[in-house]
Amino acid sequence: MKRALLVAAAVLVCGAQEVPNTEIARIAAGYRFTEGAAWSKDNYLIFSDTPHDQLLKWVPGTKAEVFREDAHGPAGNAFDVQGRLYTCETRMRRITRTDPKGRIETVADRFEGKRLNAPLALVVSKSGHIYFTDPAFGYQEDQRELDFYGVYHISPKGAMEVIAKPKGRPHGIALSPNGRMLYVANADERNIRVYDLDRNGEASGERVLVSGIPGIPGGISVDADGNLYVAVKGIAFYNAQGHLLRTLNLPDPASSCVLGDGDLRSLFVTARGFVYRLRLEEK
Q1: pLDDT digits 0-9 by tens, 37-87
Q2: Eight-class DSSP state of 140
Q3: Domains of the chain
Q4: Which of 1, 36, 216, 269 is the most exposed place for a label (fewest CB within 10 A)?
Q5: What are the C-alpha distances in Å from 272 to residues 10, 30, 64, 148?
């Protein structure tokens, strides 16, 4: 097996000196557009190649292989605590759930009788609450039945509600470590909003956490300390208060990111036709 290609990328720290170059492993290549990085507790990575209608699986030490063909324009992916895989299928305009035995079921495809726009990103809480974004890009705009872009919540019992109807298109979505805050990136407004979540998973207290992001923010991942990793031109690192800590430049624009490996100290990043693995510095 060919060794992973190592790519040098400059890391910059705001208000401080430049940090030495960091080596990043390119672990997968040759795809059209990768998206939806999700890490399984069973120690493997799932990601999407949206134009090719494929879900891919990467196990450390091996080459990425096809996990599912005919995946209906897969975008965002997420796992729940039971190990079930949730996928945003942009062409079918729905969210599906795949159990460990490979059985697939539809979780959501309509709201108040109308088809969703094209679910893009999602996150599942430890207690089973599902949150997802439903924008519309390109040809999806012409097929809309709903007259708004939405951020949704689905309770463990299946009740579905709209959290927000932003003017701009919502994109990446993530939860705080304690599950009490929800972060949503907006591709048009170039910001990240945060919501407070109560015991029932219902959202309130909408406010802007990060504004003026230089580029279109995509996927978001959050570490145990509440720091945010945002896929943008590269990766932007923010603390829990929304202050930019540093940026990581990549050879290709990033679309999604997720923390993984056994200690959750590696950041897996999808970027155009590639997937990268960044080993984060020890605390």
Answers
A1: 999 999 999 999 999 999 999 999 999 999 999 999 999 999 999 999 999
A2: G
A3: 5-10+32-279 (2.120.10.30)
A4: 1
A5: 19, 9, 16, 28
Q: Which two tokens stand for residue 160?
A: 């579905």
d(CA 159, CA 223): 29
- The contacts of residue 113 (CB under 8 Å, 6+ apart) are none
Instruction: Report residue 194 as tokens.
Output: 């945060």
Rounded to whole angstroms, how far apart are CA atoms 19 and 16? 9
* Strand locations in 155-222 (E): 160-164, 170-175, 181-186, 191-197, 203-210, 220-222
pTM: 0.92
Burial class (CB in 10 A: 0-12, 13-18, 19+), 236: buried
Q: Which two tokens stand for residue 249?
A: 């430049």
265, with CB counted inside 10 A (0-12, 13-18, 19+), is middle
pLDDT digits (tens, 9 = 90+) for 143-159: 899 999 999 999 999 99
Contact yes or no for 13/245 (Cβ under 8 A): yes
